[in-house]
């Protein structure tokens, strides 16, 4: 579906064919809206199309990290593992595209160059890099919170003669690193998964760690068929229970409702150990105050540090692997044998806090005055999260205002969905919303339904434009940061704050607490779109 200046605009142009873009297209069609998805990659799947690094898998259980809008889909689809790996997640995205006949509404290998608001026509004029052009009444940016790789500007990197790989831009063809000397820079979620997978294959693995991560065991394995049958027999209620949790998942292991300080030290240790043996993010639900009480949080952190000391045989390596920041203020890693990997004779740790990277050379890199000879380097340096992709667009609202100017001091938005001065524009899973702390598919379902309900309602009422007010936008960003200030999330430098990108404004971007967010979005609709300007005005 392509438009020109002489054809009527489509209702909805969607940027991105990940899970958000696919579900937005399907829902728009169900509502009778004309819609088109434009995707820069060569296939659907978004995150799971690009992140093909060794060991890539989801950190939320498969039975939860899946769509619940269609009971036939959730009954028919069968996951093979407790935590699905990248190939299976990509297959799921392709299954959705085929099951709901979405491919004729998706343009692949098409990167957006410009998107400008046309005040006279009351629509978005969107152009691709190849010159194709579309007019659309509404623009949905389903570009994902983790879609632009962070490529640090290491001195001399271009001089390195070996292979340089990035976890978020992994080649589609097989990569054989067996028998090589490999360095991995970064120990976040992608790094942890890559390190544990590569260690048995390579001759020497050198891990360059800037900040140690908390990692909890996944205890992954084949999906328990009895559990699958139990969940599928009760899937609607199971989904509803998840939607009532703070993160949109975890109802199989509900958080406890009392403080870590309300039980004895022995009982606390027993309860932490019980959750550790179950595995996954449930450790942070052992007590109800681990995210809001620094004293309780420190008890959980020390429990994990004691685990590290008991697993890692070399005391100096164990000490370097022990984080000191609050547990949870950076994304918790869900792993398979991460700490034990450092007991392997072919794995060594370089603590970049003690020995920073100085420069790359033709044969490796120099850190703390020591040269490390390497055949290949894996950059597990994460993403320019939440805003990076949008800030690389030529996106202009009323009066030609650029998104780069509007977000100069941080990502102003209302409800994590709309921007003042940018009419009829919606962002999915971006700043100001809960996606970073939520089962992202549950977050997608909620936001897509809110957008679809809004467009259906406003179309019936003859409203042409919806736009957040500057006051509502400012209040919302203040609210997001006020919520964060009541937690431990401001206790470290993280991508939640943009701290991993030099020069990026330090402002807390995601909102914590899914149920309260859902209620707020519903209240705004029920109050006649409080915080929005509607035009033409509705009597």
Describe, in plain words, how this protein is organized in 3D:
With 539 residues, this protein is α/β, with parallel strands linked by helices. It is 30% helix and 17% strand. It contains 15 helices and 20 strands. Strands 1, 2, 3, 4, 5, 6, 17 and 18 form an eight-stranded mixed sheet that branches. The protein has a five-stranded parallel sheet with strand order 7-16-8-9-12, covered by helices on one side. Strands 13-14-15 form a three-stranded antiparallel sheet, with no helix packed on it. Helix 1 (19-30) runs parallel beside helix 13 (440-460), helix 9 (294-311) runs antiparallel to helix 10 (315-321) and helix 13 (440-460) packs parallel to helix 15. The longest helix has 21 residues, at 440-460. It is globular, with a radius of gyration of 24 Å.
List the helices and strands and how they pair.
Blueprint: E1 10-15, H1 19-30, E2 35-38, H2 47-50, H3 71-76, H4 86-99, E3 106-107, E4 112-118, E5 123-128, E6 133-141, E7 163-166, E8 181-185, H5 189-198, E9 204-209, E10 215-217, H6 225-232, H7 235-243, H8 265-278, H9 294-311, H10 315-321, E11 333-335, H11 338-341, E12 347-351, E13 357-361, E14 364-367, E15 370-373, E16 376-379, E17 394-396, H12 403-406, E18 425-427, H13 440-460, E19 465-468, H14 470-485, H15 514-526, E20 532-535
Parallel strand pairs: 1-2, 1-6, 2-3, 4-17, 6-18, 7-16, 8-9, 8-16, 9-12, 10-11
Antiparallel strand pairs: 4-5, 5-6, 13-14, 14-15, 19-20
Helix pairs in contact: 1-13, 9-10, 13-15
């Amino acid at each position: 579906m392509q438009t020109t200046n002489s054809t009527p605009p489509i209702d909805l142009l969607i940027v991105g064919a990940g899970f958000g873009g696919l579900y937005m297209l399907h829902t728009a069609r169900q509502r009778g809206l004309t819609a088109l998805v434009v995707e820069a990659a060569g296939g659907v799947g978004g995150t799971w199309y690009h992140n093909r690094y060794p060991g890539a898998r989801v950190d939320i259980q498969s039975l939860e990290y899946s769509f619940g809008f269609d009971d036939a889909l959730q009954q028919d689809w069968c996951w093979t593992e407790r935590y699905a790996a990248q190939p299976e997640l990509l297959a799921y995205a392709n299954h959705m595209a085929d099951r709901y006949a979405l491919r004729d509404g998706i343009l692949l290998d098409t990167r957006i160059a410009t998107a400008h608001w046309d005040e006279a026509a009351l629509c978005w004029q969107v152009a691709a890099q190849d010159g194709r052009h579309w007019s659309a009444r509404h623009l949905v940016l389903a570009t994902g919170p983790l879609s632009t790789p962070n490529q640090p500007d290491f001195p001399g990197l271009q001089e390195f003669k070996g292979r340089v790989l990035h976890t978020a831009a992994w080649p589609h063809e097989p990569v054989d690193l067996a028998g090589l000397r490999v360095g991995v820079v970064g120990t976040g979620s992608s790094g942890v998964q890559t390190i544990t997978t590569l260690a048995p294959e390579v001759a020497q693995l050198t891990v360059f760690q800037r900040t140690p991560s908390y990692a909890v065991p996944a205890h992954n394995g084949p999906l328990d068929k009895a559990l699958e049958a139990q969940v599928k027999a009760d899937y609607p209620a199971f989904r509803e229970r998840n939607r009532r949790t703070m993160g949109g998942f975890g109802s199989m292991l509900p958080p406890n409702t009392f403080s870590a300080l309300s039980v004895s030290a022995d009982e606390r240790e027993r309860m932490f150990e019980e959750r550790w043996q179950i595995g996954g993010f449930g450790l942070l639900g052992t007590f109800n105050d681990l995210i809001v009480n620094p004293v309780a949080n420190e008890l959980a952190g020390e429990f994990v540090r004691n685990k590290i000391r008991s697993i890692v045989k070399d005391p100096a390596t164990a000490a370097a692997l022990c984080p000191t920041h609050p547990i949870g203020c950076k994304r918790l890693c869900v792993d398979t044998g991460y700490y034990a990997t450092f007991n392997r004779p072919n794995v060594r740790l370089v603590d970049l806090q003690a020995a920073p990277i100085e420069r790359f050379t033709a044969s490796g890199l120099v850190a703390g005055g020591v040269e490390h000879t390497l055949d290949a380097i894996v950059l597990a340096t994460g993403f320019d999260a939440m805003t990076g992709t949008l800030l690389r667009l030529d996106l202009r609202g009323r009066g030609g205002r650029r998104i780069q100017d509007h977000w100069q001091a941080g990502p102003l938005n209302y409800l994590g969905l709309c921007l003042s001065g940018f009419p009829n524009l919606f962002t999915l899973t971006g700043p100001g919303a809960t996606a970073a702390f939520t089962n992202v598919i549950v977050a997608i379902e909620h936001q897509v339904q809110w957008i679809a309900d809004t467009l259906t309602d406003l179309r019936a009422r003859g409203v042409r434009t919806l736009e957040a007010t500057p006051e509502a936008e400012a209040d919302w960003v203040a609210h997001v940061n006020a919520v964060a200030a009541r937690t431990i999330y401001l206790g470290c430098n993280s991508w939640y704050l943009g701290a991993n990108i030099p020069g990026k404004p330090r402002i807390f971007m995601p909102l914590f607490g899914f149920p309260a967010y859902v209620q707020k979005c519903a209240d705004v609709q029920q109050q006649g779109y409080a915080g929005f300007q509607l035009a033409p005005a509705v009597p």
